[in-house]
Design brief:
By secondary structure, the chain is of the alpha/beta class. The chain is built from six helices and twelve strands. The chain has one domain: NagB/RpiA/CoA transferase-like (Rossmann fold, 3-Layer(aba) Sandwich), CATH 3.40.50. Helix content is about 25%, strand content about 20%. The strands form three sheets. A six-stranded parallel beta sheet has the order 1-12-7-4-2-3, sandwiched between helices. The protein has a four-stranded mixed beta sheet with strand order 8-5-6-9. It has a two-stranded antiparallel sheet with strand order 10-11. The longest helix has 14 residues, at about 40-50. The mean pLDDT is about 90.
């Protein structure tokens, strides 16, 4: 005996037998089969999207990443900074030498209150998506656990140009589905209350992105 769901669906199909079949869904929105975009165009698009989301973006040659990170930290007056395991320490040396700032590790894990008392966090990322202006962290080296990029008020993230992809369908095959992914599209913000934009509601108020160029 058929269950209720099967019976209902059968009746729906019977009722629709004299209706024209819908046109096939167009699925080229994901860019399937499209020519890969030029790396420079991807970076331009990513920067455009990030700036539109009110993130600050700075491009840096490979040898200038430390200076770009240090400039961002100094501009925001960072004194105490949480640094995930695996983050390249050489990217912090100019800031440490020039500001007298302090780095804090996350082992043992810091409490939410301890994280909230810090001035910011620096991370790398797994990849970035140009079309949506999204940065994806998956907890790999230099990224840390999810709370590190959600609780401190400032997030400075280094994005390698080689890790920028065009769209979400290009990104998904590169991600491990067993790892917790954090998708960041600009600083945390909401406009739920009277359509007024409020930043820093459920994540960092300020997002600084350093695009690490090839060569």
């Amino acid at each position: 005996m058929a269950d209720a769901r099967t019976e209902i669906l059968a009746r729906v199909r019977t009722a629709l037998t004299d209706r024209p079949r819908p046109a096939p869904a167009v699925r080229d929105y994901d860019g399937a089969g499209a020519r890969p975009a030029e790396p420079g165009a991807l970076l331009d698009l990513l920067e455009e999207r990030l700036v539109d989301y009110r993130a600050a973006v700075r491009r840096a040659a490979r040898d200038d990443v430390a200076a770009a990170v240090g400039e961002a930290l100094s501009r925001h007056g960072v004194g105490r900074l949480v640094v995930p395991e695996g983050y390249p320490v050489e990217w912090l040396e100019p800031w440490l030498d020039g500001s007298g700032g302090e780095t804090v590790g996350d082992s043992p894990p810091l409490s939410p209150a301890e994280l909230d008392a810090l001035d910011g966090v620096v991370t790398t990322c797994r990849l970035a998506i140009a079309t949506t202006g999204t940065i994806v962290l998956d907890g790999g080296p230099g990224q840390g656990r999810r709370a590190l990029s959600l609780v401190p008020d400032l997030h400075v993230v280094v994005v390698d140009a080689a890790d920028v992809v065009r769209n979400v369908p290009d990104a998904l095959p590169l991600l491990d589905p067993h790892r917790p992914a954090t998708w960041i599209s600009g600083p945390s913000a909401t406009s739920d209350i009277e359509l007024s934009r409020i930043e820093g509601v459920h994540g960092p108020r300020t997002l600084e992105v350093v695009l690490r160029l090839p060569g």
